[in-house]
């Protein structure tokens, strides 16, 4: 026990010293040290395995045991990893651990108290030490229990304004911002979004869509055969790939948020890169609609009222805080031109509506569905919910410039609900 405590203390002390000295070590030297440490970890691991498996008999002969357990463990570990992979085609870089850790540290500077603290991360082990949030609940599952969170709209709107606006050319020195764009290029994860969100739901080109059989004809008619919709999404896809507007989370759904009644924490920004800020805001809107779908199917009227109110308040609070923050943090001379901030906000709201639409559609018919909807046991109610998502999503995409207020976003949900009957 004493040895374990001494080892733990030594590791902690060494980590602290490493963090303090890191800035004084050249990048190439850091890389060499990391590779050497990786080899050391491998040797230590092999030493532990070998010392456990092999023993020397009294007559000097070598005996071994545990080979079968080792083989079984390796096989099961490999199978489990493959089973948990969304698709065999998706193999993402371990650099996403660096991106996630560094993004959370940046966001903690802009939105303290709304992301978990990062105490350190190791590029060799692809691991990070993060604040304990075990007293929080994953928001998606809490919403599926029809719990409500009065602080959510206030918290998430503050998080989005501070982390998004303050990482744009409006607020940042332009060369510094371009360096950030370079640092957070994220091609593997962006490719997943480009394929699963902005391509496959409209044509099933890779035969990976998960379409609920009772609405197969509806999906074919409303999505696969709608050329106007596909043109609109094609434009959105290329905006997503080429608009390095802001340092976005990139996957801001209710499965990436921890909540309790007095706290909201956003985590898991492994998809982060410089893209259109409306992508994040639209994801929040869409995932609150999924929660509404679930509550509606369960007859949880009070919860449904809260979900729609949360959508309205999130959008309206974002707009109010955005205009105020813009005045406080704008540095670019031309961005101070009268009328520019209103134009800029309008473009963000248009993107918000469009990307809320793509999220609604891809989570309904694409490869990665949401449990809010797929766990609706009643077939007719689930089919209705999925039709609502598709119709509302199309409205958001095709009429993207018409959405100016939170009430506009909620009205689209109600129109889709009526049209799906």
Would you give an account of this structure?
With 421 residues, the chain is mainly alpha-helical. The protein contains 16 helices and nine strands. It has a three-stranded antiparallel sheet with strand order 5-7-8. It starts with a helix and ends with a helix.
Summarize the structure.
The protein has 421 residues and is mainly α. The chain contains 16 helices and 9 strands.
Write a concise keyword list for the protein shown above:
421 residues; mainly alpha; 3-stranded antiparallel beta sheet; two-stranded antiparallel ribbon; 16 helices
List the helices and strands and how they pair.
Layout: H1 2-21, H2 27-53, E1 54-56, E2 62-64, H3 67-84, H4 95-110, E3 118-122, E4 127-130, E5 137-138, H5 139-144, H6 152-165, H7 174-183, H8 187-196, H9 216-224, H10 227-242, E6 246-248, E7 257-260, E8 263-266, E9 273-275, H11 278-298, H12 301-329, H13 340-365, H14 371-374, H15 379-398, H16 406-419
Antiparallel strand pairs: 1-2, 3-4, 5-7, 6-9, 7-8
Helix pairs in contact: 6-12, 11-12, 11-13, 11-15, 12-16, 13-15, 15-16
């Amino acid at each position: 026990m004493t040895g374990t405590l001494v080892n733990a203390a030594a590791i902690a002390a060494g980590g602290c010293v490493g963090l303090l000295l890191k800035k004084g070590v050249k990048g190439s030297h850091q890389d060499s040290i990391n590779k050497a440490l990786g080899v050391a970890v491998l040797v230590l691991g092999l030493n532990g395995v070998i010392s456990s498996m092999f023993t020397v008999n009294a007559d000097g002969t070598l005996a071994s045991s545990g080979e079968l357990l080792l083989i079984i463990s390796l096989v099961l570990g490999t199978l489990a990893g493959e089973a948990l992979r969304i698709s065999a085609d998706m193999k993402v870089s371990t650099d996403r651990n660096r991106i996630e850790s560094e993004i959370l540290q940046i966001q903690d500077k802009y939105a303290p108290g709304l992301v978990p603290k990062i105490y350190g991360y190791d590029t060799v082990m692809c691991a990070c030490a993060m604040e304990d949030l075990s007293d929080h609940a994953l928001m998606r599952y809490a919403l599926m229990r029809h719990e409500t969170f009065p602080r959510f709209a206030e918290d998430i709107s503050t998080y989005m304004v501070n982390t998004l606006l303050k990482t744009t050319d409006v607020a940042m020195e332009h060369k510094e911002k371009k360096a950030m764009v370079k640092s957070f290029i994220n091609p593997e994860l962006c490719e997943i979004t480009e394929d699963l969100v902005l391509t496959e739901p409209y044509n099933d080109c890779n035969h990976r869509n998960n379409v609920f059989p009772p609405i197969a004809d509806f999906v074919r008619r409303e999505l696969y055969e709608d050329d106007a919709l596909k043109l609109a999404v094609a434009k959105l896809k290329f905006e997503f790939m080429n608009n390095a507007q802001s340092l976005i989370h990139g996957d801001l759904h209710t499965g990436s948020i921890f909540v309790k009644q007095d706290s909201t924490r956003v985590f898991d920004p492994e998809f982060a890169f410089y893209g259109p800020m409306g992508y994040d805001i639209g994801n929040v809107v869409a995932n609150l609609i999924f929660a509404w779908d679930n509550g509606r199917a369960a007859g949880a009227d009070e919860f449904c009222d809260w979900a729609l109110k949360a959508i309205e308040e999130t959008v309206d609070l974002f707009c109010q805080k955005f205009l105020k923050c813009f005045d406080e943090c704008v540095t670019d001379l031309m961005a101070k031109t009268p009328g520019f901030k209103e134009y800029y906000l309008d473009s963000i709201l248009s993107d918000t509506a469009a990307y809320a639409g793509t999220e609604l559609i891809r989570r309904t018919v694409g490869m990665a569905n949401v449990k809010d909807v797929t766990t609706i046991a009643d077939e007719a109610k689930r089919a209705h919910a999925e039709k609502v998502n598709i119709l509302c999503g199309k409205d958001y995409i095709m009429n993207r410039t018409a959405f100016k207020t939170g009430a506009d976003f909620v009205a689209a949900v109600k129109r889709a609900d009526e049209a799906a009957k």
